Amino acid sequence: MLFAGLHGTLEVRQSEGGETRLRGAFPYQRETVLYDGGGRSGQARREIIASRAFSRRVSDPDADIHLLAAHDFDRPLASRGAGTLTLTDDEDALRFEARVGADMAGVSWVADALGALRSGLVRGLSPGFRVPDASGAEDVRSDAQGLLRTVRKADLFEISAVTVPAYESAQIEARSWQPDQQNTSDLGFDPRARWRL
User: Fold this and answer.
1) How far is Cα 73 from Cα 53, in angstroms, rounded to an integer?
2) 98, 147, 171, 173: least buried by Cβ within 10 Å?
3) How many other C-beta atoms lie within 10 A of the C-beta of residue 110?
4) Residue 42 neighbours by CB under 8 Å, 6+ apart
């Protein structure tokens, strides 16, 4: 399975009843450098996830997709199968909203993941996917900057909150919930707060 993450954003809000809502977006059409070519091969590797690349499984209501902590299927936070994860796919981004119930607050990995998100220690957003062998699912070309792979079709299995995503420019933003703060449409990020490798 491949993992990716670029310019992702995540917002964390908790209701008075103890349910935590997570909203996030994984923007499409952003080029990232996966490998700078500094090793033995000497050829940089870049990647772009095309618009709606994940649409096949996202549009299938029976496809169970998970929100995980650090790509670990033993640490689920929400899933479509449980009715706690909603995915929306459009030309600009894959967006999601997850509900983590108050009954999950006592689960150790859930408390750890939400605490790390709220504190800003976890700032990456990264989807886990497989590229099928189908024709047109990806194209790879070589140019003066190295190899560029464009993923046009991929099977999405999960999306994760991660500390250091595979994509250098990935970021998550965590916010505290305030009853008088109702604007949830701004899922922007401050590039000065990104993790750099």
Assistant:
1) 22
2) 147
3) 20
4) none
Distance CA 22, CA 55 (A): 21
Q: Is 73 left (phi over 0), alpha (psi -120 to 50) or beta?
A: alpha
Strand spans (E) along the chain: 2-3, 9-14, 20-27, 32-35, 45-49, 66-69, 72-79, 85-89, 93-100, 124-130, 138-143, 146-151, 155-162
CB 110 within 8 Å of CB 121:
no
| CA angle, 83 then 112 then 67, to 5° | 30
Spatial CA neighbour of 11 closest among 194, 196, 159, 189: 189
Please state the separation of Cα 96 from the chain's center in Å.
9
Tracing tokens 């604007």 back to the chain, one arrives at 183
Give the residues across from 47 on adjacent strands. 32, 149
Q: Are 11 and 184 in contact (CB under 8 A)?
A: yes
**Residue 93 β-bridge partners:** 27
pLDDT tens for each residue of 40-74: 767 888 999 999 999 999 999 999 999 999 999 99
